[in-house]
Amino acid sequence: MRLFNRPVLIATLTTAVLALPGCGAGAPAGDDGTTLIITANAISGGKNSVSAEWIKQWVIPRFEAAQKAAGRDVHVLFQPNGVGDEQYKTKMALDLKSKTGADVLDLDGIWVGEFAQAGYVKPLTEVGGAAVESWEGWKQIPQAVQGLGIFDGKKYGLPQGTDGRVLYYNKELFKKAGLPEPWQPKSWQEILDAGAALKKLPGVTPIQINAGTAMGEATAMQGALPLLAGTGTEIYANGKWTGSSQGVRDVLEFYRQIYAGGLGDPKLQQEAKGRDKSFAEFADGRIGILAEGDYFWRAVIDPKAGVAPMADRDQVVGYAKIPAMRPGTGIRGQDFVSMSGGGVSVLNPFSKHPQQAWELLSFMFSAEAVKAQLAGAARVTSRSDVNTEVLADDPMLSFVSEEILPITAYRPGLAVYPQVSAALQEATADVVSGKTSEEAATAYRAKVEGLVGGPGNVAN
Amino acid sequence: MSMDAAGLGRGRAVAFALPALVLIGVFLIFPAIWTIYLGLTDYRLTGLTAADPRLVGAGNYMTALGDGRFRNSLWLTVQFVLGSAIIGQAGLGFALAWTMRDRRGPVRRVVEALVLLSWILPGSVVAFLWIALLDRDGGTLNALLGTPGAAWLLDHPMLSIIVFNTWRGTAFSMMLYSAALENVPPSHLETARLAGASPLQQLRDVVLPRIKGHVLTNVLLTSLWTFNDFTPFLLTAGGPEGRSEVLPVYIYNVALRGGQLGFGAAISFLVLLINLVFALAYLRLLRDRREVPG
To answer: Which of B21, B38, B73, B284 sits in a 20 to 30 Å window from A152, CA-based?
Structure first.
């Protein structure tokens, strides 16, 4: 009798176990109110700590209070992340693919196209409804900046601002090496010359320009693409991707001169945490010249909020425009170049409360909220009304806004771009690890042809 | 009457088998078939083919076999299994068990506790410890060896993950061999010793024939686990530039970090085929052990 009952018991238990996961689905239950979730690649005390604090300390209590005043019971939760950009991207893609995830989430502007093509994000008006178009903020965001969140002519996200790339240098090391201050190189050769002078200082890595695949997109944005722009070449122009063009070979040769010539630390490029280590080394006064975006100034070496804070940042750190290979060889015949990008905030099209999610998102982009996010620091935000107020106090950010943005360039918003970028990262890794620039360029061309649908889509 | 009994027996058999069949079907067979299907498509994590994947037939397999990165990864995995599972875990585990076999009391207990500690700690915790140990800036190993700035994870990535995984997995082998050695009657060893057999001869002629089954089981299991081990990702993420990108890490890097889900599925299926060889060898071994009494 006992034996006879056991299969029934097992079958019952199995059914119960199999049915259990179904019970956990859906939003946190337990009260009548609406729960909204915000996520970002930000975490208190770590990556983008200021944003995480702002969401927790400012956005959530104020938004909840405003909703309560309007007679609605809304709870907002923050899901922090403090991971590499690529891991964050994977997580967001998997969340949206499974039609779950936060209601409001941050994406890099360059991902908008591929997320839209996959159906993971939808135009804001489709999700948030009519309230989106009538939002007051649109007229404060310049058209060029709105472009960060636009794909195929439709607005998918609210741009958080834009940025620019410069060469940071350590004034104290420059002084010791007998280099001028202020410093503004006018060609790549002048960067190499400064590197050679810095090399004489013990324990100092003269130049740090991101390379290799461990750095991911940072290699493209802080290194390969601005350099490529300095040769007058765009990675994608007139419907074709650049192959093993002279520009690509020049860029790879410049990398080779730095890393094979002992002016850069190739190991820093290969470590999984290499970029963070280079930040720490610069803050310690162990790197002479470092190519980075203004993110570095405001989120890395910021004396108060940075992850590698420099108490004497304003006295010690100088910044210069990135020169073209030679004067006048940059894109549009420029002497100096930069690349820009920026984050956008999007709505989850699978949100259970899309209208409330839009209310939350637009609340986060109100002038008051954007100002609060800056927490006294300066940043090139997407809102003109905020910029005029806050940039005046920060010479570096004013420099980016006035000198860099007019000469900058943007990456192509095409879904295949991240793979082309990865091929370019591999090419830089090849030269850093000892291959010739010709070999690396040839391998790069072959990879790009495979990625973009054959040699017909590749220019020489 | 007999018909009823047979019917009842069949019913019982089905009732017994059903839960297992459901579990196997839902968690093993369906995902496996789905993976094989995905491996035939150009499915990606983002972009147009995420929404609308196309069948590419054997395209992913041709790409994989022609891809230097895949072959590199396969070769690194072979090194990982040989170095870490066979020489490291199985070899060191046996050596430890052999050394400890006659010992009782505190020495044995301390050694066992230390070795076991590595086994009960989660892989992510162990990886974190080893990163701290091997780090080039302020790493404990550099402080101990007096080699400041030596970048172990970068200059010797495979050696680092082999040593790391050996440390993690030796406890299992040691425990298995300790149990096996308990079954070797001391009198046999004593007889061999009196007959003038050297320790090596005792090991070869008396001990190994008696624990052959344990050795094979151990080598097969540690090889299988190591072949599929993902924790090297936590140490090096496959870097620098693919020099420690063993197969599971390679699959993760192409499928999830690179977003090539179809391609990743194809490689996963190739790995599944290789695993089947291990599994069949293991099943064969179990069957042989059952057939040979004693």
So the answer is: B38
